[in-house]
C-alpha cells in the first residue's frame, strides 16, 4: 500500500532547528560514546528550537492597498493602434518651460521646423506646423477638435500664435490615417490643441529668458574674419531677451450650466543676429587644402562680380577688371531670432440649455508685429550678357571679356590640367534699330554688379 505525503506550511528554518536539537539530546544519552560527558549540554541551558513559535520567525506580511506593477507588459494603445497618437500633456509643457507653441512642437521628431520666431529669410510673421516636412498646407491644425483659421491672407496656413499657451491642457499629434476622417487637408497629419475652456479661478503665468554665449572663437574662424576685415565678436554676451505674461480667468454661472473663460497675453522678443556669435559671423568654407577656413558669402556684392568662361572677375582700382571675386557677408542682416511684440486675447463661453443643445462662443484675437529682413538687394543675374561695343565698357574691361572663347554661344572644355578646347560659335547681336547683324556686338557671359544698401 502506497504512502501518502502531506505538505504542511512549516518554516524550513524552524524544522531544521528542531532536528538539530533532537540530535544533541540523543548524543548526550549514549553511554558508549567516550566523549559523552564533554558533549553533554546541561538541561537548564538547553533551549529547544521547537519552543519558538513559527510566527515570530516568519511573521505574516502586512496587507496594504498599494499595488506596484513593474515591467513592460502593460498594454499601450499607441503600440497596437492603426494610427498612433502622440500626446504632450500640460506637465511636460510646464517642465520644458517653452514660451511659444512652435518651440514645443519643433521638439517632436515628426514635426519639421517651419515658419516661426527663428525664421529669417522669407519669414511671414506667422508660426505654422509642418508634419513630416510635407508642407504646412498639408497639416490640419485643430483647437478642441475644430479647425484653426489661417493667420495671414497672403499665407493661408493656420497660425499657432493665436493659441494661448497658458490654457493648453495637452497636444495630440496624429500622423497616419487622418485623411480618411479629415480629408485632403490632413495629408501629413493632424495636430489638435486641447484647451482648458472650463477653467475655474484665476491663472497668471510669467516668464523671462535670455541667451548667454562666450565668444572665445572655439570655431576657429577668427583669423578668417580678420583677413576679410570683418568685425570679430568677442567676450561674454547676454542678449536676445524674451518676456511673456499670460492671464486667464474662468467661472461658472446658472448652477454650473454656463461657463465663461477669458484670457489675455503679452509677448516681447529682442533680435539676435548671426554676426553676434563667433561661429556665425560669416559664411565659412574651406580652401583647396581642406584645412584653412575662409569667409565666403553671396556672389552678388559691391562693387560687383562678373563671371566668364575663364573664371570670375571683380572691379579693382579705377573700376578696372581684375581676376577674383568679392563675396558678400550676409550674416549682419540675418536673424537667429526676430524682434517683435505680440498681444493676444479672447474667450470661450458655453451654456447648457438641454442635454441635446449647448450653444457656445469662441473669440480669439491676435495683434502681432515683427521685423523680418534679408540682405540688401542686388542684381541677381538680371544682366547676364554685355554687348562688346557698349560705350559703358572701357578698353581694359573690353579686353578682359571680349575674346574668343568667352562669347555667347561658346563654351570651354578643359583638357587635362593646363589645356582646354573652345567649342561653339559666337552668336551675333542683331541691332533692332538697323535690323542687321553687327559683328562687334557680341555678348560675353558676365553678371552685373549689385547695388550697395
Can you put this structure into words, describing what you see?
It is a single chain. The protein has 453 residues and is of the alpha+beta class. The protein is 13% helix and 31% strand. It contains 9 helices and 23 strands. The protein has helices at 12-28, 36-39, 54-57, 77-80, 90-96, 101-106, 179-182, 222-228, 395-401, and strands at residues 85-89, 111-112, 130-131, 139-143, 146-147, 168-174, 189-195, 201-215, 235-253, 258-269, 272-273, 283-286, 293-296, 305-308, 311-315, 321-323, 335-337, 340-351, 360-370, 411-415, 419-423, 429-431, 436-438. The strands form 8 sheets. It has a 5-stranded mixed beta sheet with strand order 1-6-7-4-5. Strands 8-9-10-18-19 form a 5-stranded antiparallel beta sheet, with no helix packed on it. It has a 3-stranded antiparallel beta sheet with strand order 14-15-16, covered by helices on one side. A hairpin with a 2-residue loop joins β4 and β5. The longest helix is centred in the first third of the chain and has 17 residues, at 12-28. It is elongated, with a radius of gyration of 41 Å. Mean pLDDT is 79; it is low at 1-51 and 435-453.
Amino acid at each position: 500500500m502506497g504512502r501518502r505525503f502531506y505538505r504542511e506550511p512549516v518554516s524550513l528554518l524552524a524544522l531544521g532547528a528542531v532536528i538539530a536539537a533532537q540530535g544533541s539530546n540523543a548524543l548526550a544519552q549514549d553511554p558508549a560514546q567516550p566523549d559523552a560527558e564533554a558533549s553533554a549540554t546541561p538541561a537548564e541551558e538547553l533551549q529547544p528550537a521547537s519552543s519558538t513559535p513559527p510566527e515570530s520567525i516568519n511573521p505574516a506580511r502586512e496587507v496594504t492597498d498599494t499595488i506596484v506593477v513593474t515591467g513592460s507588459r502593460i498594454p499601450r494603445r499607441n503600440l497596437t493602434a492603426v494610427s498612433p497618437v502622440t500626446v504632450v500633456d500640460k506637465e511636460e509643457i510646464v517642465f520644458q518651460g517653452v514660451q511659444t507653441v512652435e518651440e514645443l512642437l519643433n521638439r517632436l521628431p515628426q514635426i519639421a521646423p517651419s515658419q516661426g520666431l527663428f525664421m529669417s529669410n522669407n519669414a511671414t510673421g506667422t508660426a505654422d506646423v509642418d508634419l513630416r516636412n510635407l508642407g504646412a498646407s498639408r497639416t490640419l491644425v485643430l483647437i478642441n477638435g475644430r479647425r484653426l483659421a489661417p493667420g495671414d491672407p497672403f499665407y493661408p496656413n493656420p497660425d499657432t500664435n493665436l493659441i494661448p499657451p497658458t490654457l493648453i491642457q495637452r497636444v495630440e499629434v496624429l500622423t497616419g490615417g487622418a485623411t480618411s476622417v479629415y480629408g485632403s487637408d490632413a495629408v501629413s497629419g493632424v495636430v489638435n490643441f486641447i484647451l482648458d475652456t472650463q477653467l475655474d479661478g484665476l491663472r497668471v503665468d510669467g516668464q523671462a529668458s535670455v541667451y548667454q554665449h562666450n565668444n572665445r572663437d572655439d570655431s576657429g574662424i577668427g583669423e578668417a574674419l580678420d583677413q576679410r576685415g570683418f568685425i570679430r565678436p568677442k567676450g561674454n554676451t547676454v542678449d536676445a531677451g524674451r518676456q511673456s505674461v499670460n492671464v486667464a480667468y474662468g467661472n461658472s454661472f446658472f448652477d454650473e450650466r454656463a461657463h465663461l473663460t477669458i484670457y489675455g497675453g503679452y509677448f516681447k522678443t529682442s533680435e539676435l543676429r548671426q554676426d553676434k556669435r563667433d561661429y556665425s559671423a560669416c559664411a565659412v568654407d574651406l580652401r583647396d587644402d581642406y584645412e584653412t577656413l575662409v569667409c565666403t558669402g553671396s556672389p552678388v556684392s559691391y562693387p560687383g562680380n562678373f563671371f566668364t568662361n575663364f573664371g570670375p572677375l571683380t572691379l579693382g582700382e579705377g573700376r578696372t577688371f581684375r581676376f577674383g571675386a568679392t563675396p558678400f557677408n550676409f550674416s549682419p542682416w540675418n536673424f537667429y531670432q526676430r524682434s517683435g511684440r505680440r498681444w493676444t486675447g479672447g474667450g470661450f463661453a458655453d451654456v447648457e440649455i438641454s442635454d441635446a443643445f449647448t450653444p457656445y462662443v469662441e473669440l480669439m484675437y491676435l495683434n502681432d508685429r515683427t521685423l523680418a529682413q534679408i540682405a540688401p538687394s542686388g542684381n541677381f543675374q538680371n544682366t547676364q550678357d554685355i554687348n562688346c561695343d557698349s560705350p559703358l565698357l572701357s578698353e581694359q574691361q573690353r579686353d578682359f571679356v571680349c575674346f574668343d572663347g568667352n562669347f555667347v554661344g561658346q563654351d570651354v572644355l578643359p583638357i587635362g590640367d593646363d589645356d582646354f578646347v573652345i567649342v561653339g560659335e559666337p552668336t551675333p547681336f542683331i541691332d533692332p534699330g538697323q535690323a542687321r547683324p553687327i559683328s562687334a556686338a557680341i555678348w560675353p557671359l558676365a553678371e552685373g554688379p549689385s547695388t550697395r544698401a
